[in-house]
Design a protein that fits this description.
mainly alpha, Globin/Proto, iron, Globin-like_sf
Length: 175
């Protein structure tokens, strides 16, 4: 994956890695878009279904908050990796982390999860992050660059996770 220096700068200026509320709200928005795009994905999150049955706000459940933050932590880790230029030498550390996450998702295949569901997350993440960036970009060219950069980053994350999901189970991915 190749993010240019200017793309990394653009994304890191938007990403508020030390703002817990902002991170949670981005995660919440991503999952909201995912569930709107593909309501079936809710079935992978029993606490969301339970909240729906009980007419409670799933966005405020402890389990959802934890999941939303896990998701944005992965994006944050990937962005930090590219911001710190670690990738110039090797992206093994990040790749192994993401492959490990993908491998762990194999357990969810029993309830219907498939790696193709991650493509919904790519679209949802880009949509949520572009909505967040509306006040940052003053012209259409900047919007296109930002959107392309988020697509590259999220697609890279998913690609590595897919590698882990489909990897030989004898490989050591959970370092």
């Amino acid at each position: 994956m190749c993010l240019s220096k200017s793309e990394v700068v653009l994304l890191t200026k938007q990403w508020r890695k030390d703002d817990f509320d902002w991170l949670y709200n981005i995660g919440k928005e991503i999952y909201t878009v995912v569930f709107e795009m593909c309501p079936r994905v809710k079935s992978f999150f029993p606490y969301v279904l339970q909240c729906d049955r009980e007419n409670k706000e799933w966005q405020e459940s402890h389990e959802f908050r934890r999941q939303a933050l896990r998701f944005v932590q992965v994006l944050s880790h990937a962005l930090d990796h590219f911001e710190n230029a670690k990738y110039k030498a090797s992206d093994t550390e990040l790749r192994d982390l993401l492959r490990g996450i993908g491998f762990k998702h194999r357990a969810f295949s029993k309830i219907g999860f498939r790696p193709t569901h991650w493509q919904i997350f790519v679209v949802a993440a880009v949509k949520a992050l572009m909505k967040d960036a509306e006040s940052l970009d003053v012209d259409d060219a900047a919007k296109v660059i930002r959107k392309t950069a988020w697509e590259k980053l999220t697609s890279y994350v998913v690609s590595c996770m897919e590698e882990g999901y489909y990897s030989d189970s004898t490989e050591r991915l959970d370092r």
